[in-house]
Amino acid sequence: DIQMTQSPSSLSASVGDRVTITCRASQGITNYLAWFQQKPGKVPKLLIYAASTLQSGVPSRFSGSGSGTDFTLTISSLQPEDVATYYCQKYDDAPRTFGQGTRLEIK
Amino acid sequence: QVQLVQSEIEVKQPGASVKVSCKVSGYTFTDYYMHWVRQAPGQGLEWMGWINPKSGGTKYAQKFQGGVTMTRDTSISTAYMELSRLTSDDTAVYYCARGSRVAGIRFPSDYWGQGTLVTVSS
Question: Would you place residue A65 in the very low, low, confident or very high pLDDT band (cuts 50, 70, 90)?
Fold first, then answer.
């Protein structure tokens, strides 16, 4: 099975900072990569699909890039409401493995 | 609007089984795959498998093969996930999540149920 590895596992940044989270697949998945945001005690929310397409209603400060094995989620200007854990997930085929998550906090 | 409403909290003893339901509304149940994802306390998301509500076909993560059964009742637009031989490691929140359109392009889960906490304890 393809493994998904995120880095870092946690990070702390200041409001207004540019934040980048990476996700690496152990084999190529073309662009079948999604990013989810999960706030404490809440249900995961789809942010980005097809590696770079913003889901409807998601703020434009979120963006995604990458193809093949290496992917990036970027928040251009961190806001207090972005405190959450972020997960990547491959959906090219089963199993739809998630990355281990990146916990994002405000400094 | 699309809604996935799951059954309530379950407390089970080790060795027992649990069956979680997920009733959908706002779309045609048989048009989209249904996935199940779990999250142990303080841990990440773990994909368990999917069911094709139209055909009843299933695909399970290797870890859950032989222990999980996903079914559906199309007459009431409800999907079920049954987990058997429970251990304390199965204590988690279990989510149902809508997937790709059946026979459509691949798509991640855009709508999720509210989650069902299953606690396994003697």
Answer: very high
